Every structure is written in structure tokens, then in C-alpha cells.
Known about the structure:
By secondary structure, this protein is of the alpha+beta class. The protein has one domain. It has helices spanning 31-38, 78-81, 101-117, and strands at residues 4-6, 11-14, 22-28, 43-44, 57-63, 68-72, 93-98, 126-129. Strands 1, 2, 3, 4, 5, 6, 7 and 8 form an eight-stranded antiparallel beta sheet that branches.
Amino acid sequence: xxxxxxxxxxxxxxxxxxxxxxxxxxxxxxxxxxxxxxxxxxxxxxxxxxxxxxxxxxxxxxxxxxxxxxxxxxxxxxxxxxxxxxxxxxxxxxxxxxxxxxxxxxxxxxxxxxxxxxxxxxxxxxxxxxxx
Length: 132
């Protein structure tokens, strides 16, 4: 499939249909590992842009059934904190957005599967579901 990533379990592809997604959980992982798994971020926000300046980078995907999910930093980078913020390459705390917890769990399964399949070392993976 073009524009998508194919795995034994899931197919994901870049998506602009992320309206209605919101925080589902957290992921502690190196930026470089996210780039290995998902490619470069789909969106890069910079201070002074039309964004709220709370996010520096974001990946936006949907699963094969259309369920969207996002991976993004929140208020820990330079876009929000200026020179006191982390460089994107140093960010390790990420938010996972989706329309329900199922998207979060599917993403975690996908990350674990892809890291095993491609021998990508995630040191250490840390996941946490957001509690409402």
C-alpha cells in the first residue's frame, strides 16, 4: 500500500481526519525512535505560527478501519516554553490522542509489534492510559 505502513496486524496511514480526537494516554519514548517507527512528524509547529504554540510536532494517522490517532508533545518544547523548552530531539514524553481508549491500546500494540519486527530497541517503553 502506498502512503501507509503495513504490518501483520495493522495498517496505518497518514490522516488529516483527526477532528474530535483528544488525550487518551501517554507514551515515554525517544523522539528518534518515533521517527524510526513513523517517519518524520507530519506537522511541525513553530512559535508565532497560527497554532496555540503548545505543540512542537505531531504525527496524525488512522488505522485501516479509519480510527484516527495522534502522537504529539504538549507544553514541553520550545514552541510553548521558548528557550527553556526542550529541543524536539530531546523530548521523550508524548501524548496520544484518539477518539477512545481503543485507539491508544491499538497504537501501543502497533509500537510493540513494529519494534520487535524491525529490531528497534525501545528503552524503556513506558505507557500510561489517561484517567478521566
